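Its record is set out here:
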Amino acid sequence: MRPSSSQVLETPWGYPGDRVSLITLQVESVILLVVMLILIIYMIYDIYSRRPRRKTYHIKETLICTKCKYVVEREFEPGDFIGLIKGKCPTCGGDLKVKAIYAIEKEQK
């Protein structure tokens, strides 16, 4: 039995002693909170998934013999520069000179 409207003021949630309306309000609040959290998590995931991935590279150098034009491709070593003589040719014994230094993008897995 509910009190008359002249005795108790009605709140937006129903009458002060009305447990059903308070439980409904709590369930609605929890559902709203869960939906907001899911939306925030999705937005953060979307921002990070759109960021471009940092590319990685292999740095290679091409060596060419000054006499017989024999070509060798090797990994770059720090301190190398174009025109540097890096050893002897395995076929004719001439000088191997650094002809080119370049980067190759690594494959993404």
